[in-house]
Design a protein that fits this description.
microtubule binding, cytoplasm, alpha+beta, three-stranded antiparallel beta sheet, motor protein, 5 helices, Kinesin-like protein, cytoskeleton
Length: about 190
């Protein structure tokens, strides 16, 4: 199942001067999946499975998608794809500040908590890739010249053969893997 959610972010200084107290984007008070956008005097309506207003919390957004963690432990492939223009709040929603973490950290915490079930044995691995100019780059591989391709397996699962995978047993180990990538790709200042 594909669900499309929308989160409105508050007005920020970088948006420029605000036109009074009128917001160009509003939620429909009677339907939590309808977003109304005012543009050049015309009202446009967009329908989503769920929409979050500017006062929504990281916790509320995560609660809506937390069932995906359980689905992953049940063997389903899951993905949360954040899409939007620069400055629209993707990084805030997905990562958040340390004091109010976003979906990624909350999902990892729930994943490792749920994986402690004594009746099951889970192996959790991390991989990191980047798609740039239609090229797949393995961010954990020291050999960036290896050509990788996404392949559709006979069972309908999309896979990237040869992608580096690292077994992780805690949220801290995932963070270490992430930090290693950041350090690996940091260029020295000239």
């Amino acid at each position: 199942n594909i669900r499309v959610l929308c989160r409105l972010r508050p007005w920020i200084e970088e948006d420029g001067p605000r036109d009074g107290n009128t917001l160009a984007v509003n939620l429909d008070p009677d339907d939590d999946g309808v977003v109304k956008v005012s543009n050049k005097g015309r009202m446009h309506q967009f329908d989503f499975d769920k929409a979050f207003g500017i006062d929504s919390t990281q916790s509320q957004v995560f609660e809506e998608v937390s069932s995906l963690v359980r689905s992953s432990l049940d063997g389903f492939k899951v993905c949360i794809f954040a899409y939007g223009q620069t400055g629209s709040g993707k990084t805030y929603t997905m990562e958040g500040p340390p004091s109010d973490t976003g979906i990624q950290q909350r999902a990892l915490q729930l994943l490792f908590d749920e994986a402690k079930d004594p009746d099951w044995n889970f192996t959790i691995s991390a991989s990191m890739l980047e798609v740039y100019n239609e090229t797949i780059i393995d961010l954990l591989s020291p050999n960036q010249s290896v050509k990788l391709e996404a392949k559709l397996q006979p069972d309908g699962i999309l896979d990237v053969p040869g992608l580096t995978q690292v077994t992780v047993n805690s949220q801290q180990q995932v963070e270490q893997v992430r930090n290693a990538v950041t350090i690996f790709f940091t260029l020295p200042q000239i």
